[in-house]
Structure formats: structure tokens, C-alpha cells
Amino acid sequence: MRRSLGSLLSVSIVLIGCAGGDSKPARGDVLLTADRLFDGRRMIDDGAVLITGSKIVAAGTDLDDAEAKRRIDLGDATLLPGFIDLHVHREGGKGALARGVTTVRDLGAPLFVVARARPSPGALRVLHAGPILTAPGGYPIGRYPGLGLPFRDVKGAWKAVNIVADEGAVVVKLALEPGITTPYPVPSRQEVEAVVRAAHARKLRVTAHVSGQLGARLALDAGVDELAHMPCLVTEPGLLRELARKGVPVVGTLHVAVNLGCVPIANARVFVSAGGKLLYGSDYGNPRIPAGIDVEELKLMVLAGLTPAEAIAGATAEAGKLLGMEPLGTLVAGAPADVIAVRGDPLAQLHALDDRVLVVAGGRTVVSP
User: Does domain 83-322 match CATH 3.50.30.20?
Assistant: First the structure.
């Protein structure tokens, strides 16, 4: 039964230090402590998180004097921010929240799904792109009915962007997919540039579905903000290095590509070695991709050249930054109270992320120790 931490306890006010330099202890509803805390970028020992209502009011190591009506000591465990999955379908799955993912970005859904989206405190935070903009007859039309929004010419590009933006999309998804076994038409560079200009006019980013060199080159030349997949077909190393140099982040979706027999690891290694930002996305909705934290995706990110800390940061702090929703994805004062705890040390063994003992979303307990 999901219960609000704030509903159990009275809301307290964090007292600020007086002019003389002495400060009173921080106060909150619940104090979580564990042997380790990963704040979204780094691991610290003897960590603690103090929560009031739906927000974190303090986090770190110096909370021994904090005053809380309820204390939960998790012992040999690690506190982390709730995970952010930057690429899902079907709204991330019903089991995602209990499995440690507190925010998802749905990168392809019918328009009516976006229109009916209503945030709920303590529920999975779902951000929508709506249907995928594409050329007439382009991917995913014919393959995934209802997921494509075709447009013609520059004027049509502006209209399509405004359609999804008016329904509440937080990002524009664009298909630049010529097809691997089935040929698909793709928009022209002029049309892609129009999509980018229209999206930026609505203060939205553009993420591109690509599988290989043609789509990645078109995205880069037209100013697309990010790639929704690491290209899995053989791609010129120079293009991957150029993507990295120009600061175009890539949401990996490495696990689903491996499952489909299109292995992107070599491309990912070139991109990461050139300083490219590789972020976490599971592409949930495809077969054999679990709801919740996909540890196999994180392991493949490490295989591509990231450290375990960098891989987890790509699903927490760096993901929140990409969304423009900082401090979402971190355990710092002022961040949403999205907190998970796992047994052991996930930097030593990523599979520790499968052993969750606590999940809190927006201050509401989803999984209790």
C-alpha cells in the first residue's frame, strides 16, 4: 500500500543559521541513513537524506544532528536518486516505479496519450514526446500504427511540431530512418532544419531516431539536439567523433540493439573515447527489456567505456540535466524526494541495483524496507 511520508508526519521547516554563525539542526519528516550515498555523480560514505513532504531538505554526511520524527537506518545499503529512463514506450510499464525508475520519457505514443497525461503525486513521472514526426510513408508508419505523424515540406514541419507541442509534449521525436531491411523515406535536410527551428521556437528539444550513418549525419548537419539511439550500423568514426565534439548527447539503448542483432558497442566506444555524452535509455516496450532499471543496459554502457559511476550518472544527474529539470536526478537540498536504496555497493557490482529495499517517489513510499 503506497503511503505518503508526509502524511505520517507533520511538515517541518528547515531552520537557517543565525547571524552569529551557530545553526540549529535541520528538521524534516523522515531521515534515511545508509552506509553509502550516490548523489547522482559521486559516492560518499555514511550518507543521509532528510525529507519533508515531497522534497529533499538536506542530504550528505553531516546530518547526525538532524531532527526527524522518523528515522530509517538501512545499514549496508546505498541511497541513490530515483532512476530516469530517457527512452521508453508504453509509458514505461506498470512495474517500473517499484523497480527503481521514478521518471520516464516516452518517445513514441499516440497523440491522445499525451493529451490525457495527468501527473499524480507519488506516481511514475511520465514525460511525453507524442507521435514520431516522419516523412509520408516513413518510419514508423506501417510498422507501428498510431505512432507516426507524417508531414510534408517546411510548412508541414512547423505544423507537426505545433500539434505535439500544443498537446503538452516535452520533446519532439523525429524519425531519420532509411530502414535496414525495409526502405523508408526520410525528410530532407531543409525539412529537418524546419523541425528544429519550430521546436526551439516552442522551447523544445529534438531527438532523432537513427540506426546508421545517413540518419546520424542528417541529424548533425541539421542541428538536431540529441540522438535517441546509438547508431548500431557501422558508422564512420569521424562522424561519431564530430557528434561528440559538437556536444550532441546520445541515449544509448544498447541492450535492445544487441537483442535485435544490431550491435552498437564499437560505435559507442568511439563516441565515448572522443568525450561524447552517453546517457541511459532502455527502449522499454521492446521484447526482453525489463520494466524498471535495466542493469544490462548499464553494463553495456560500462563496456562502451564509462565507469559504473558515469553509467549511473547517465540515468540520474545527467539525465535530469538533459531534461532541463535539475535538480531532478540528484540527492541534494531542493530536489524532488525520489530516492531508492539497494543492498550493497552498485559501483562494485551493478547487479546490486536489482536488490532494492526502498523506493520513494515524490515523498511517497512505494517499496518499504
Answer: no
**Whether CATH 2.30.40.10 fits 3-81+329-367:** yes
d(CA 152, CA 170) in angstroms, rounded, equals: 23
In 3-state terms, what secondary structure has residue 158?
helix
In the chain, where the domains are located:
3-81+329-367, 83-322
Rg of the chain (C-alpha set): 21
Average pLDDT over residues 180-193: 94
Task: Give the tens place of pLDDT for each residue, 256-282.
Answer: 999 998 889 999 999 999 999 999 999
> Which spans in 137-230 are helix H?
153-166, 189-201, 213-222
Q: How many Cβ atoms sit within 10 Å of the Cβ of residue 41?
A: 15
- Please give the single-letter amino acid code of residue 264: P
Name the one residue in this structure whose C-alpha cell is 542541428. Answer: 223
The answer, as to whether pTM is greater than 0.90, is: yes
- Check if the beta carbon of residue 6 is closer than 8 Å to that of residue 29: yes
